[in-house]
Specification:
Layout (H helix, E strand, L loop, with lengths): L1 E6 L2 E6 L7 H15 L7 E9 L6 E9 L5 E7 L2 H19 L1
Parallel strand pairs: 2-3
Antiparallel strand pairs: 1-2, 3-4, 4-5
Length: about 100
């Protein structure tokens, strides 16, 4: 499922092949933007990638997030099992990169 939205002037592009993005996840993505906006006002775009590979006990899930800001974009990725927890983690990683680049 691919999903695009404009939230507070930020273009959100979510790509999740073979997965449905629930309302809870969409809401959490908006929360991520609100959190990122506290550290930079120049967010143009947010790309989120959900990926699930394998089956059963060997399944791996990954979330990647690219924050489009002036200058070089920041990107973070996290592997785990909880989509919301992984979103929070990649948001925190991107915040650290934004703070480092200021």
């Amino acid at each position: 499922m691919n999903y695009t939205e404009n939230y507070k002037g930020v273009k959100i592009d979510v790509q999740s092949p073979n997965l449905d993005v629930s309302q809870e996840i969409q809401s959490e993505i908006r929360n991520c933007i609100n959190k990122l906006a506290k550290f930079t006002n120049d967010i143009n775009a947010l790309d989120v990638y959900f990926k699930s590979e394998g089956q059963g006990g060997t399944a791996t899930t990954t979330v990647g997030m690219r924050v489009g800001i002036p200058g070089p974009d920041v990107f973070a990725e996290e592997k785990g099992e909880n989509w919301v927890g992984m979103l929070k983690s990649v948001t925190d990683k991107n915040i650290r990169q934004i703070q480092k680049n200021k």
